[in-house]
Amino acid sequence: MNKKILITGGAGFIGSHVVREFVVKYPNYQIINLDALTYAGNLENLKDIEDRPNYTFVKADITDQAAMNAVFKQYQPDGVIHLAAESHVDRSIADPTAFVMTNVIGTVNLLNAAHAIWKDNFGGKRFHHVSTDEVFGALGESGFFTEDTKYDPHSPYSASKASSDHFVRAYHDTYGLPIVLTNCSNNYGPNHFPEKLIPLCIHNILHDKPLPVYGDGKYTRDWLFVIDHAKAIDLVFHEGKDGDSYNVGGFNEWQNIDLIKELCRQMDVKLGREQGTAASLITFVKDRPGHDLRYAIDASKINAELGWSPSVTFEQGLSLTIDWFLSNQEWLDHVTTGDYQHYYNNQYHGA
Ligand code: NAD
Ligand code: TYD
Question: Which residue intervals define the domain NAD(P)-binding in the entry (predicted)?
Fold first, then answer.
């Protein structure tokens, strides 16, 4: 079946893997990648597929309702996979309004644009909202987030994503817009912007800079290899039940300090350095305000209903990720010029 699918945020970290997955796996689909190319968007992430005949790039900003209406009118997509967002918690603490604009208003603009062209015939249409487990708030030492866990966001980022999730459900319940949602745990892998923990530490080890550990380092995250997330999105987009949400996670919890030590160990091996070299850069710094203690996903629904489970172990995924960064140091240099140094020197890491 031929479909036209609009993927937003396709030049970013996760979006680039989703675009690649769809362009390569479905040559009879037309994939339209809509992205504003903010600091986090980079078309280098897609250079291996940019010449494929079923791929089109549109530079546009989802905060612009008229621009979204025009794109939907021109391309008439059957499906939307919405990933465009401001995605970094620390940035949301510094500038919450940018997160409201893109994550809340931008999502509502897309819902309006989809509703306007689909409202007379919802058949075969689907709006897939890609969201985060952070909407559920923080867990204590035990327990997991399920699809029924009550929303309890704490950071401006998670509050904006929770709000966008509510709007997506509201358009389903009010107008009948066909929707699905995925709420995923922390991703890692190639193309990950070096403001998030894993790529930031890889970057800093390569530049002999401090590895900033917030607070006591005992905060826990559930890490998933990004290509496994892209495969989960493919499954839910095609086979998920209308109106439902699916939690996606790696069954892979790590305290930050243990994760950084493991990363340091692997980096020393791969760089042929004496063990302990990278770990000597570990520096405990001021904690993030409102820092969520622990996230952990119960992914049994997507496993039972759609047969999804992660395809790589964390050991394999982390090794692949480090190898990618080591062979793509030009990419790292490109994305860390300009604003990046200014941001890090002033905001968080006191470098
Ligand atoms: P990212 O920051 O790497 O990429 C975001 C992309 O959106 C960039 O290409 C950027 O240019 C684009 N964008 C930002 N504002 C835009 C706007 N106003 N108009 C159009 N494009 C805009 O983010 P990511 O980590 O790839 O996350 C993608 C999605 O997945 C987000 O919705 C995020 O909330 C969600 N998510 C991320 C994670 C994670 O671990 N990174 C986990 C679960 C869910
Ligand atoms: P991050 O990668 O920003 O993802 P999120 O906040 O969305 O989970 O952070 C992952 C964890 O690592 C989180 O507990 C905050 C912590 N962290 C540090 O300790 N140091 C850092 O420099 C960064 C960026 C994060």
Answer: 6-319
Q: Which of these, 184, 167, 158, lies nearest to 96 by C-alpha position?
A: 158
Q: Check residue 54 and give its pLDDT.
A: 97
- Kindly write down the DSSP assignment for every residue of 31-46, as one continuous string: EEEEE---TT--GGGG
Please state, in angstroms and rounded to a whole number, the distance separating the CA atoms of residues 104 and 287.
27
Pocket residue to mutate for ligand 2, from 213, 256, 284, 285, most atoms within 8 A of Cβ: 256
Distance 88 CA to ligand 2 centre (A): 9
Between CA 221 and CA 296 the distance in angstroms is 7
Lowest pLDDT segment from 4-13, 77-86, 176-185, 332-341: 332-341
Query: Cα(278)–Cα(267) distance, rounded to whole angstroms?
Result: 7
Domains of the chain, start order: 4-187+223-251+295-311 (3.40.50.720)
Residue 156 CA to its chain's centroid (Å)? 16
- pLDDT tens for 270-286 read 999 999 999 999 999 99
Cβ of 85 closer than 6 Å to ligand 2, yes or no, is no
Whether 151 and 137 have beta carbons less than 8 Å apart is answered as yes
Please tell me whether residue 270 adopts helix, strand or coil conformation: helix
Distance, in Å, from the CA atom of 32 to the CA atom of 35, rounded to the nearest integer, reads 10
Catalytic residues: 133-134, 157
CA of 243 to the centre of ligand 2 (A): 31
Which residue do the tokens 């710094």 mark? 285
Continuous H helices in 62-221:
65-75, 89-94, 96-99, 106-118, 156-175, 197-206
As for ligand 1, residues whose beta carbon falls within 6 Å of it are 9, 11-15, 35-38, 40-41, 61-63, 83-87, 102, 106, 130-132, 161, 184, 186-187, 193
Sheet of strand 253-255: strand arrangement: 186-188, 220-225, 253-255
Q: How far is CA 125 from the centre of its chain?
A: 23
